[in-house]
Design brief:
2 domains, alpha+beta, 42% helix, 173 residues
Length: 173
């Protein structure tokens, strides 16, 4: 029982619980939380350093608000993931092993009409007799549709979607 009490007195536990509560609150409530309120709470925390109780309450509120804002920014970023065709500028980040029909690359979406967030993608270019392989740093302008990397179909196949997710790559062209 004393192990649980010592865990409850551990400050990172408080931070984790309050942050998780903020994320869960934002997930279910979908509350629009202006950044100005967070800044006001942070200033009040700094101003209230003399009063320990005041500081504690506002520190807890600040951690909760950070959880809310992190979920809010994630939702905002996901709204920018348009699935229709549009113009993209891709910058080649890494050259992958080619197969018989395609050359594969990791690329960064540099210019996206819907979102200003930089996103890593898997870029596959069909081989033909006219194109040369791209190299790192090349910029490609494309009118295309980004799609999510498909999940594995057979149970014992290599899960490329999970492998790519560990490299922060979720979509492909």
């Amino acid at each position: 029982m004393s192990g649980i009490k010592s865990l409850l007195n551990y400050v990172p536990t408080h931070i984790f619980v309050l942050y998780a509560a903020g994320v869960i609150f934002q997930f279910y409530a979908n509350f629009i939380f202006p950044i100005e309120i967070l800044l006001a709470i942070a200033l009040l925390c700094l101003a209230g350093l003399k009063w320990k109780r005041f500081y504690l309450y506002f520190f807890c509120s600040l951690v909760f608000c950070i959880g809310v804002i992190s979920m809010q920014t994630r939702r905002t970023a996901l709204k920018g993931l348009q699935l229709e065709k549009q113009f993209y500028v891709f910058v080649i980040d890494a050259v992958l092993k080619a197969n018989a029909s395609t050359n594969s690359y990791y690329a960064v979406v540099e210019n996206n009409q819907a979102s200003s967030i930089k996103e890593n993608i898997l870029l596959r270019v069909q081989k033909d007799s006219l194109t040369n392989a791209f190299s790192i740093g090349d910029r490609i302008l494309s009118y295309s549709k980004l799609s999510f990397i498909p999940t594995k179909i057979n149970p014992y196949d290599f899960d490329y979607k999970s492998y790519s997710a560990r490299k922060n790559i979720y979509r492909q062209v």
